[in-house]
Amino acid sequence: MYTVRKSLACCLVSAVLAFMLLCPALSAREIEIIESPEVALVDEEGAGKLYRVGEHLVLVMEGTHEEMGYQHGRLLASHINNILTKGYTPKALWERDYSREYVMAQSERMEKFFPEKIKEEMRGLVRGLHDAGYEDITYEDVRTGITQAEILHFPPDGPPACSNFVCWGKWTTDGRLLHGRNLDWNIKGDAQDDHAILVWRPEGGSPFMMIGWAGGVGSVSGMNSHGITIGESTLPSPDATFDGLPLLLQMRLVLEQTDNLDDAVAFFENCDRTTGWNFVIGDGTIPDGRALETDAKYCTVFAPMDPKETEETGHWGMEDAVRRTNHPIGLEQLMRLALAFGHRFGINVESVEDLQALMPALHTQNSWQRYEWMSKEIERQEGKIDVREAIQILATGPVYCDVTLHAFVADPSNNAVYVANAGNNPPVTATDMPFTRIDFSPWFE
Question: Which SS3 state, helix, strand or coil, does residue 420 take?
């Protein structure tokens, strides 16, 4: 992770809120959009096809879950081998003092919540790897990749920072919904080398896509053929467990199993959750959106103009928009954090008045600044936000971050996603890279 800069007072408050991370603020930046990338078929396996769209590998899987897993393992075998044995996974885990025994134990706890179809897909993926010549990779190795987000939520690592917004109606040029998202994680761990855009066309189900990595049976950014979009941000929480469905599968399954906003929200309300995550969900068909603050015990839902998003905590509801960074918005959630962690850092919070006395310091935190920046940038451009302006919000001010692993603007009305992936050798943050328009219409039929 990157260096966190803060005064002693802000350090204490940040610790209470579990690692509010800072990213550098820059003025308006030049952005590049590739509207019509070259599309080339690279390889195929059964109904599965691997394309290169501009600089991005796009894997399209089709069939049963076992068949889709096999296609994934065979077509992306070299990248899966690299990310699991040489690249991101060993650098993020084994080289950073996470013991294999600890990781496998927590991963096994989460596997108890995997649907059987996911296990079938994982077994198919391993079989595809073995048939491609990578016989040393095991089912447990693949499982580690799916469960690592929860494991990396705790020391010796620390949670990353991310920004998400959805806007529509009065803010966009034609009223359509746009979803902007930065995944601020780590661009020095080489995950970008095995970046892949994954498209599932499940037998008897609806197509969906996720921006992720080779070997991932789920990821953290995506859209389905019904216009549901989703992104996440780490949320500090005193209520966490490894006994639940890992983040990457929570997000994959909501895209696979739901076709409208209400059902997407209900999925998170009813699933076995793990630790703290903020979600922003868009529905391009209505259009509408929701922000969710979740952990193992709580799932709090925020609609546009939600009265829980209140000036009492330095936030405000917006018409036709929802947005989240890396802290809770609701007063109840903030109080839970302060009561749980404050005593560890010499901060005594016993009442709402005590919490409100800390607000001036909290407002200096980068997560608050990103929330405010996105909000005011949207409000500043009523009726003017298009894809370029949405990208500009991601690439400017405190939302700009020098460790953005990938960024996207989803345009569900047009079945399109604009994707930027971090560069490497040397590392380059994603929003300094070109955003490539990928049209999913051929695969969303």
Answer: strand
CA distance linking residue 209 with residue 227, whole number of Å = 11
CA angle 92, 96, 102 (to 5 degrees): 90
With 0-12 CB in 10 A as exposed, 13-18 as middle and 19+ as buried, what is 147? buried
Three-state SS string over 51-66 comes to EEECCEEEEEEEECHH
* Closest C-alpha among 207, 43, 186 to residue 128: 43
Sign of the alpha-carbon dihedral angle for 388, 325, 246, 284? negative
Q: Which amino acid, one-letter code, is at 71? A: Q
Do 404 and 421 touch, CB atoms closer than 8 A?
no
**pLDDT averaged per 10 residues in sequence order, the chain, 445 residues:** 30 38 53 98 98 98 98 98 97 92 97 98 98 98 96 71 96 98 95 98 98 98 98 93 98 98 98 97 98 96 95 91 94 85 77 83 88 97 98 97 97 98 97 98 96
Give the chain's domains with CATH numbers. 8-21+161-169+179-193+218-443 (3.60.60.10), 39-151 (1.10.439)
- What percent of the residues of the chain are helix, what percent strand, and what percent coil, each to the nearest 5? 35, 25, 40
Which H or E run includes 300? strand 299-302
Give the DSSP H or E segment for 126.
helix 116-131
- The first and second tokens of residue 393, run together, are 């919000």
Residue entry with tokens 């994603």: 430
d(CA 57, CA 148): 22
Indicate the pTM of the whole model: 0.93
Distance CA 149, CA 127 (A): 24
Beta bridge partners of 436: 34, 419
CA distance 344 to 332: 20
| Pair 218, 200: CB distance under 8 Å | no
Among candidates 362, 335, 332, 361, which has minimal Cα distance to 350?
Answer: 335
Task: Please give the single-letter amino acid code of residue 427.
Answer: P
Which residues face 288 on adjacent strands? 283
* pLDDT at res. 160: 62
From CA 125, how far away is CA 72, in angstroms rounded?
A: 6
Buried-exposed string 374-398: b where 16+ CB fall within 10 A, e elsewhere: bbebbeebeeebbbebbbbbbbbbb
